From TrEMBL:
GO-annotated molecular function: leucyl-tRNA--protein transferase activity
Species this chain originates from: Leptospira gomenensis
Enzyme Commission designation: 2.3.2.6
Keywords recorded for this protein, A-Z: Acyltransferase, Cytoplasm, Transferase
Protein's cellular compartments: Cytoplasm
Gene: aat
Recorded family membership: Belongs to the L/F-transferase family.
Keyword presence, Transferase: yes
Catalyzed reaction equations: N-terminal L-arginyl-[protein] + L-leucyl-tRNA(Leu) = N-terminal L-leucyl-L-arginyl-[protein] + tRNA(Leu) + H(+); N-terminal L-lysyl-[protein] + L-leucyl-tRNA(Leu) = N-terminal L-leucyl-L-lysyl-[protein] + tRNA(Leu) + H(+); L-phenylalanyl-tRNA(Phe) + an N-terminal L-alpha-aminoacyl-[protein] = an N-terminal L-phenylalanyl-L-alpha-aminoacyl-[protein] + tRNA(Phe)
Biological processes annotated in GO: protein catabolic process
Name of the protein this chain belongs to: Leucyl/phenylalanyl-tRNA--protein transferase
First-level EC class: transferase
One Gene Ontology term, aspect cellular component: cytoplasm
Pfam family, one: Leu_Phe_trans
């Protein structure tokens, strides 16, 4: 892995949330950043963050409503992985009337990261084969960073997250990062831990650096 320690402040000793300004979204820089608890959150210029506190999920404690559970059990959808990564990113970026940090620069950078096997998407298709929801994020070792989720069909994003968690648990993942809490993630069971605790867990979870190979689809 290429060393970017001269570019990023060390979040273990740096007491501010922004740890670098500028650079690019090359796969090498993204890999170094995520392995060290850092992520980009805006461009012009690119700002790199390590938040304190940090939002995470317990993979065993996703909160799903009875309504969503019924939809999961009805199986009126199809689940795939990495079939439409860029499309999922663009759907996550589609927020009429709102600004989004998922710009074309981010889409290009993470699509290259995806091609190298570190960024992944889960897609939820309706019965007509139309993409209705999905999630994308970054996986390194037994660590997954959830970047964004969308639902064009009600609850399809949550259905995707449910199946993503199920596969991650089976594959031995130990840390799911959601960066910062919002109304949706809080309702799904996300909670906060200190930056130092997060970095300790991350060091263990991402230590192997291995790439994740999810199933092509869920029967």
């Amino acid at each position: 892995m290429k060393d970017f320690s001269d570019f990023f402040r060390n979040p273990r000793v740096w007491d501010r949330e922004i740890v670098a300004v500028g650079g690019d979204l090359s796969p090498e820089r993204l890999l170094y950043a995520y392995k060290n608890g850092i992520f980009p959150w805006s461009d012009q210029p690119i700002l790199w963050y390590c938040l304190d506190p940090r939002g995470i999920f317990d993979l065993e404690k996703l909160h799903i409503s009875k309504r969503v559970k019924r939809k999961i059990n009805q199986r009126q959808y199809k689940i795939t992985f990495n079939r439409a990564f860029e499309q999922v990113m663009r759907c996550c970026a589609y927020r009429p009337g709102e600004e989004t940090w998922i710009t074309d620069l981010f889409i290009r950078g993470y699509t290259e990261f995806h091609k190298l096997g570190y960024a992944h998407s889960i897609e939820v298709w309706d019965e007509n084969g139309v993409l209705g929801g999905g999630v994308y994020g970054v996986a390194i070792g037994n660590f997954f960073a959830g970047e964004s989720m969308f639902s064009f069909v009600p609850d399809f994003g949550k259905i995707g997250l449910y199946h993503l968690f199920d596969v991650l648990k089976k594959d031995g993942f130990t840390l799911f990062d959601t960066q910062q809490l919002n109304v949706v993630t809080l309702g799904l069971g996300a909670y906060q831990i200190s930056k130092n605790e997060y970095l300790r867990r991350l060091e263990s979870a991402a230590a192997s650096g291995k790439k994740w190979s999810p199933p092509r689809s869920i029967p």
